[in-house]
Amino acid sequence: MKSLLILIALFVFTLPGTAQLTTTKQCPPVSIYILKGTINNVGPNFTPGQIKLALPCFTSEVTEADSSKCGGLISYNDEDMYFYTGRDYIELREKFKGKMEFPLMGAARTSLFGWLGYPKIKDAKWEAFQTAYGILVLHFNAANKVNLIQFSTKGAESLKLCE
């Protein structure tokens, strides 16, 4: 009888202690599909809710509003990946380490033709490529290697990038 009371007391006192444990949201590995214009099947024109559902481990969010500088942003600082929800484009910066369909980050400017063809628009520091979903913009550092990738469902004429 004494053992039964000790067992019940032990159970009652340890139950609240286990209720305080919570699990950390696990993000799936990030995979970029340049020719489809998606990250883990999430496109630049997805809603903030759809993006956060597919990739739940975002680090910060700016809601879409008239007062927001770039029209809404969901940041994944650990991945160096940014969804500009109000302007419908995705930005991958230099420290991005996820998987890519083509290893564009850090690629030499002269090696891009084999993957992407001729650029639609060329500048000294960037090139824009027409894609089936919209546009892909690659920016280059002083060594002419890709250090910023932006892609959007919009065309070159209607794309507005955040400065």
Shape: elongated
Q: Topology as H/E string?
A: HEEHEEEEEHEEEE
Radius of gyration, taken over Cα atoms and rounded to an integer in Å: 22 Å
**What average pLDDT do the residues reach?**
86
Question: First CA to last CA: what distance?
Answer: 73 Å
Determine the number of helices (DSSP H or I, runs of at least 4 residues): 3
What helical percentage do the residues reach?
Answer: 10-25%
Spatial strand arrangement across the major sheet = 3-4-5-6-11-10-9-8
Number of strands: 11
Sheet having the most strands: 8 strands, antiparallel
Per DSSP, what share of the residues sits in E-state strands of 2 or more residues?
Answer: 25-35%
Model regions low in confidence, pLDDT < 50 over at least 5 residues: none
Structural class: alpha+beta
Describe this structure in words.
The chain has about 160 residues and is an alpha+beta fold. The protein has 3 helices and 11 strands. It has helices at about 1-20, 50-55, 115, and strands at about 30-35, 40, 60, 75, 80-85, 90-95, 100, 120, 125-130, 135-140, 145-150. It has an 8-stranded antiparallel beta sheet with strand order 3-4-5-6-11-10-9-8, with helices on one face. The longest helix has 18 residues, at about 1-20. The chain is elongated, with a radius of gyration of 22 Å. The N and C termini lie far apart (about 75 Å).
